[in-house]
């Protein structure tokens, strides 16, 4: 059999530096901050009602923002994850960019984004766009990383089969790549929604000085209830959120999980499979089948026929170099000139930061790094065994999956003030509370990826380990941990970014008219945001980006290479 010339850039190959860099992101941050200086000095926000009757409309508004953010996240994921996996030149730009962007502290970037948008759009439109952007940045990175990981670990024999059948890019996407990566994408979609709910509160309650950019929604409702200490309203808000999450689970995620079972890479069917009453209802519905045959099938066939006529033939390179004309060169020169100007002005802004504040940034970075490390260790200890139990036992998953999804989706920032009051009296109370809140923003990335990895272990391999009489430890060492390794790396790199992001709300808390903070880089960023100290905000944000990117390069990227080289299931 002749192997099709591979266009996959393997993670194990050396990555040539170039393209997107920390300096590029620094220029973007500085440009946003400069534009933000022209924002309106005062903005009057809406009145957030705590009456239970407003909860359905608030839930609909929040759900609309989540749907818009998820749609944008999936488009970004499919396009850029695909380019990074199949185009070497694109990979040199996209993967470093993803490392940097997922390390950007979301809540420190929001002021520049929101205030910049108010210069261009009406305040109400700018606030809605900024909230969607914030939710996208909490959803998109784990989806892109797991899609990239799936594309780079597709078994070689399946790639050879697609070459034999001469599948073009569209048929390879719909017949091989999406089915192979579908389970990971589905579980990470649930994780992305949980992360979106977590940051929804921050997206709906943002204020800068005299500028009130709050938006009506569940996040604003819960935050207002927490600020007023209205436990009844907190209960109503959490109840509305739980009802929304359970409805999504029953009508969306559970049917999709049942449907995705067909994409498992196994030769023996599992003894017990997930069940969904709504999936069974749709499967037995004549109306659904007629509607599918009358609407979905013709569209699908039309798209397939179109791609057969217009997409490149198999084996044709993606993204071949095109001839640059003078317009491209002129545009490059213009962009370069603007970038040089902004780099110079950004350097001047950094030079305006006093030496004492740089020392505060350094100490804060070390303190936050220690909390992130402790948080990841705690998360690993419990998520690996629990995730394996859920992923390998469909009967258990049918009970625990909605519970886990519900708990992961409840924004801990709504309940954090209550836990903070309880912990402040303990030794190291605020540090414990900060680790707790960072854990709530970290552990779910690991758990959902472990569940996804465990659920893809073929049933025939499980039977083989049983026939060989392997002990429990041997099954973990020979089968479970190697199968989980790529998913653990993906979960850990996104969990690490989540922990750094959560540090901003964990280390600096404003509650009941008082502000409580501890030493940490997140506290420096929050304090700079609250006081409008843009040079300090710029410097602290860049410091966090540099620390996270260095860790990704020295640790996580090497583990990515190892997973692609030694732990591909084939």
Description of the structure:
By secondary structure, the chain is mostly helical. It has two domains: 55-264 and 276-283 and 325-566, MetI-like fold; 284-314. Helix content is 75%, strand content 2%. It is built from 21 helices and four strands. The strands form two sheets. It has a two-stranded antiparallel sheet. It has a two-stranded antiparallel sheet with strand order 3-4. Strand 1 (207-208) and strand 2 (211-212) form a beta hairpin. The chain is globular, with a radius of gyration of 24 Å.
Average pLDDT confidence is: 77
Distance between the termini: 17 Å
Share of helix, binned:
over 70%
> In sequence order, what are the helices and strands, one letter per element?
HHHHHHHEEHHHHHHHHHHHHEEHH
* Whole-number tally of structural domains: 2
CATH top level class name of the largest domain: Mainly Alpha
In CATH, the homologous superfamily of the largest domain goes by the name MetI-like
| Overall radius of gyration | 24 Å
Examine the coordinates and then state which fold CATH places here, giving the name of the CATH topology of the largest domain: MetI-like fold
Strands of the widest sheet, in order across it, are 1-2
Specify the biggest β-sheet: 2 strands, antiparallel
Residues in β-strands, percent:
under 5%
Residue windows where pLDDT falls under 50 for at least 5 positions: 1-22, 316-325
Number of contiguous helices: 21
CATH-derived architecture of the largest domain: Orthogonal Bundle
Shape: globular
Number of DSSP strand runs? 4
Structural class: mainly alpha
